[in-house]
């Protein structure tokens, strides 16, 4: 049994077809078919049923796939370990962070890493919506700090590190009702909802927590969104850590909306499985969230 046979086997299951596996692995379909046939002959097992248009795993194939997936993950881990042992300090490290995250929880880890590795240029990018994940999968970020929305979980390692609470707020100047009664969507339609543009492409534009039929303004980032809301020009959802002082002073009031509940989102540190982490990236990875979990 060879590693390339397991790779081809996993690719067929993941893509659903021999053709899809061939495209993923940049091989001919006949080469993939030959590889799998050799594997089946060596194992003396039929792994795929080929009666339908799309191949499906046989009962034996299902069991073999679970074990093969585990072995492939272990082999990738060994490669990553070997790469780390060979590695020197990276000249540059890129971190893409969700703009909703409270940076105060992350900066100590960044500061410690910077002091330990002064020759490494640390680049911190604040991203909206699916921006952190887009940068990670494009190879433009080594580590992402974001929620798991739209994340290809089979391709990444993800560990929870923080929680963010998003709460709808408005200036008192809008004269919106306060108290326990939920404000209906109809009541809110005459008020501008301020939303932020995503930085992860059209597939990551904001779709959750948008009230149907309401007026909308789009801004580029959360700082601009907060200023627009404070000016009494609209309302919108903001992270609690950005509005704590204003809610305490009364400059912003929390809203109880029918279609916009308070949302708590877990933030994860995320890195790609197929990209071996360097010395600095590994150290930063270990430090992120360590204080919160200690």
UniProtKB/TrEMBL annotation:
Coiled-coil intervals: none
Which InterPro entries does the UniProt record give?
A: LysR_HTH_N, LysR_subst-bd, WH-like_DNA-bd_sf, WH_DNA-bd_sf
Full protein name = CysJI operon transcriptional activator
- Gene Ontology MF term list: DNA-binding transcription factor activity; transcription cis-regulatory region binding
HTH lysR-type domain: which residues? 1-58
What keywords is this UniProt entry annotated with?
DNA-binding, Transcription, Transcription regulation
Q: According to its UniProt record, which protein family does this protein belong to?
A: Belongs to the LysR transcriptional regulatory family.
Gene3D superfamilies hit by this protein? 3.40.190.290, Winged helix-like DNA-binding domain superfamily/Winged helix DNA-binding domain (1.10.10.10)
Please give the organism: Ruegeria denitrificans
Q: One Pfam family for this entry, by name?
A: HTH_1
